[in-house]
Amino acid sequence: MVVLRFFSDNGLIGILAFIPQKWWQNTKSASITDSYVMLSLREADGRIVRYMQEVNSAQFVFKDTGLQIGDCITLNYKVENGKSHHHLQFNFEGVKGWLDLSSNTDPFSALPLGTLSGLARKIGKQSEWSRSQFRYVSQIPSGGVQGQLKTIEKETHFIGYGYHEQGWFNDEPHLLNQGWSWFHFLHPECNIFGLPEGYIYVRMKDQIVLGGMCLFIENYKMEIKKFENSTSPKILTGGQIRFESKGIKIEIHLDSDTNQELIEFNAIKTAQLWNTSVVQSTCSIKIKDQSYNFSGHAMLETCWLQK
Fold it and tell me: For 28-81, how does the pLDDT look when each residue is reduced to its tens digit (9 = 90+)?
């Protein structure tokens, strides 16, 4: 799974994802060799627009400096002074364009050495037994983004800030774990993402404040969970996140009433559901004697087995 999220200064919010179709396709007759590439946008006026394209795995071309996915995606990347730079060109039916994402910090993974074995997941009661390792890294936890979108109706140029991650797991989705609720509050001066009770990453301007596992921190929870206005009773649409440890206190309010769904997929062989939405949010941070308050948007990602 490859995911790129971005928030622009003109109000455009987007997510571009490459998902193996054998995991996330709701048509049961689909070929397991096929995959999905998708671009979902929340435009400045609040309208949601989605573009999806099916690609056979035989159309993948891997290079030392990038990846070609059929005729719809060309990704080139390079590393300079330890920082990643990605250039993406896309061509879907109805929209085409390009996007540049440049990291302003080092890659991040909460997992030891970036991997989590099947044995560790089994011991932690996260999943059934699987030989496959789960690998995850945020290659660009925070970076500057600029790009262009062109449709029949209009041409849009944008500049803002973004995030890029990659996850690998070569097995059925229900063997990865029982599900998760992931959040990301992304602001020009504040970047926070993680799994409540699992891990957290906090960056303020040019300084990484926190980054790593939080398994033994009791005061890190998602409270007042809300599931209203969703296509499934298990899809998280809002709530409140609290974190407190070592002189750092964080509160993030996710307004369920403003929730807008960007992507929803059901797994082809199991009852697992993956959903990503965007909500209006506020964030307050206190670091020792300094207090900060931000308002903007956050993304919520929910994945659960529908038992």
Answer: 555 556 777 889 999 999 999 999 888 877 788 888 888 888 888 899 989 888
| Domain, as residue range, for 215 | 2-305
Residue with tokens 């989590």: 116
Looking at this protein, which amino acid is placed at residue 119? L
Phi, psi of 80 (to 5 degrees): -130, 125
Tens digit of pLDDT for each residue in 171-213? 766 677 777 889 999 898 999 999 988 899 999 988 899 998 8
Is the pTM for the entire model greater than 0.85?
A: yes
Q: What domain count does the chain have?
A: 1
The rounded distance, in Å, linking the Cα atoms of 264 and 303 is: 10
CATH of the domain at 121: 2.40.370.10
- Spatial separation of the C-alpha atoms in residues 27 and 253, rounded to whole Å: 36
Nearest to 223 by CA among 248, 206, 246, 240: 240
